[in-house]
């Protein structure tokens, strides 16, 4: 093993393990047409148990469950990444603006985040998802727009520390504008916090999407792991103990979420601010 790789493994084994899981799932999503034994839309004999032809059997309309599971990786990861990105962009931006400018901006952002945090998240998402048409993009925006508050609060606390640092004062005295300071000094020193919150946001988005899909609020045209469990529940998979239909997508959700959580659990480093 290369010394640098060995050092990374010994220094942050959880992060390396999480990245390995993530790379595996990304590879499955990217090479789904080459890995899947069948077209997931192709129908055949329904309710077949696992056999030599269909490793995970078939569903109620005869579609190969293994192929459907592989292609569902694309949808679940896409929803997680996009919803997580939306929440992180909103949360980090508001947190930096509130922490840096203080005053009325801080009061307004904190007040809005307090209101959003007081409202139960999942029931609100269920209401919005039910009101909107069933679409993958609607789920992405609903989840992304309601998961930014914790990021805002963490980034806000960090920026409050940074704005009083000597190198920030030096940058101001040299004529640096607010935009330059935020992008080249504040953002760099919030990078590790934002990366950890992004990993957790993706994991939370995937779990939320699975919950909404299980309740029948997902997009039936874009099958995700949560949608597979929903169909297994509503079409006899649970009643007939067809574990090969509902257990694999559940395990995929657990494994992917575990990977993102492991990435966010990197050993804490020194909180000393870095001067670019």
Describe, in plain words, how this protein is organized in 3D.
The protein is mostly helical and 276 residues long. It has helices spanning 3-11, 13-30, 32-35, 65-101, 103-118, 121-131, 136-145, 149-162, 166-173, 178-189, 191-214, 225-234, 243-264. α4 (65-101) crosses α11. The protein is elongated, with a radius of gyration of 22 Å.
Q: Major sheet: size, sense and barrel closure?
A: none
- Provide the structure class: mainly alpha
Residue fraction in strands: under 5%
Rg on CA atoms, Å: 22 Å
Average pLDDT, all residues: 86
SS field, number of helical segments: 13
SSE arrangement, N to C: HHHHHHHHHHHHH
Please give the number of β-strands: 0
Global geometry:
elongated
Poorly predicted runs of 5 or more residues: 267-271
The termini sit apart by: 32 Å
Helix content: over 70%
Quick overview of this protein structure:
With 276 residues, this protein is an all-alpha fold. Helices cover 71% and strands 0% of the residues.
Features:
mainly alpha, single chain, 276 residues, 13 helices
Helix-strand blueprint:
Layout: H1 3-11, H2 13-30, H3 32-35, H4 65-101, H5 103-118, H6 121-131, H7 136-145, H8 149-162, H9 166-173, H10 178-189, H11 191-214, H12 225-234, H13 243-264
Helix pairs in contact: 1-2, 2-4, 2-13, 4-5, 4-7, 4-8, 4-11, 5-8, 7-11, 11-12, 11-13, 12-13
